[in-house]
Write a structure and sequence with these properties.
Blueprint lengths: L1 E6 L6 H16 L3 E6 L5 H7 L5 E7 L7 H9 L16 E8 L7 H13 L2 E2 L4 E4 L12 H23 L11
Parallel strand pairs: 1-2, 1-3, 3-4, 4-5, 4-6
Helix pairs in contact: 1-5, 2-3
Length: about 180
């Protein structure tokens, strides 16, 4: 099983990468291979193409003005859904989760915007409730999540692998497609 994380930050590293690494540690404990694709590398088309491979995808972004980055929005805008005229639907039949980071608790509902797009527009199976980590969730130097948040992120990684296995083994869940 492969779990791919797509980080929408305009800069490599940072709090969002720290949070994603914790989620992927949990996935790895469950036996998943993991990989990280950072949009800061500037290869949007390559990232879209690589979404075909994984069984599960973690979409991650810092939060600016209560929303995800322009890079993550651009990725979602260019990812095909298998609709009329599209030859692929790389997110179909996949389990996904959203991981957002921000300066304060005030932007935590931004995770629901991403979940709405993933569930409604792409018809993926979503791990609930998604994760939002404010600055207070990180150690003082920002290099790690505080223990309670790290445990939460790792649990989400483990649960994502379990959800992906359920979707992959289901006759019906992997067949669901967007309605429009």
């Amino acid at each position: 099983m492969l779990v791919t994380a797509v980080i929408g930050s305009p800069n490599k590293g940072g709090h969002t990468r720290v949070a994603v690494d914790a989620v992927l540690r949990g996935a790895a404990v469950e036996g998943a291979e993991t990989e990280v694709l950072e949009l800061a590398d500037g290869r949007l088309d390559e990232v879209v193409a690589r979404l075909e491979r994984p069984d599960a995808v973690v979409f991650a972004s810092p939060t600016y003005r209560a929303d995800v980055t322009a890079g993550l929005k651009a990725l979602l805008d260019t990812t095909p859904r298998g609709m009329t005229g599209e030859t692929s639907a790389p997110l179909s039949g996949k389990a996904c989760t959203a991981v957002l980071t921000g300066a304060s608790d005030h932007h935590f509902l931004a995770v629901e915007k991403v979940r709405g797009i993933l569930g409604g527009f792409f018809a993926v199976q979503l791990l609930s409730p998604g994760l939002y980590f404010p600055r207070a969730a990180f150690t003082e130097d920002g290099s790690a999540l505080e223990d309670q948040y790290s445990a939460l992120a790792e649990m989400h990684g483990r649960a994502l692998v379990e959800l992906a296995a359920a979707v992959r083994s289901s006759k019906w869940l992997k067949e669901l497609r967007p309605l429009v």
